[in-house]
Specification:
Largest sheet: 5 strands, antiparallel
Distance between the termini: 18 Å
Shape: globular
Structural class: alpha+beta
Helix content: 25-40%
Strand content: 15-25%
Number of helices: 4
Order of helices and strands: EHHEHEEEH
Strand order of the largest sheet: 3-1-2-5-4
């Protein structure tokens, strides 16, 4: 089973950001975010930087401008990563962000995989459900 967290967060540039980590970055930069929450979010982000590899591939295309970009999903066995993500979500929810938890047995065409996550291009029929 794979797990993805999304939000209906729209950043200051009016761009739709779906991932929890995109929302984390923007909340840290917002002037109304408390210093304590910024510090905790930065510490959590640092933990992920040290304990979660960045996918090395985001597309299965061979050209420079692929039509489909992959989305990251945690594996349900990544227990510590999921707990840390829940810590991030608790803080984001203090700022009225609604976080949705998606699960899937088949998140799409997998283009990257490690012990904790996959990066997958959503199947065409699922794109509106996971973005």
């Amino acid at each position: 089973m794979y797990i993805r967290f999304i939000t209906q967060f729209i950043n200051d540039d009016n761009e739709y950001e779906t991932g929890v980590f995109h929302a984390l970055r923007h909340i840290c930069e917002h002037s109304l975010t408390s210093k304590e929450d910024v510090n905790e979010l930065k510490a959590l982000n640092g933990w992920f930087n040290a304990n979660l590899d960045k996918p090395t591939k985001f597309s299965n295309a061979t050209n420079k401008n692929p039509a489909s970009i992959s989305l990251s999903w945690f594996k349900d066995t990544a227990k510590e990563h999921l707990l840390k993500t829940n810590d991030i979500i608790k803080i984001l929810e203090r700022y009225d962000l609604i976080i949705e938890r998606l699960t899937s047995k088949s998140p799409g065409y997998i283009v990257y995989e490690d012990d904790h996550q996959v990066s997958a291009i959503p199947f065409k029929s699922d794109r509106t459900k996971v973005l």
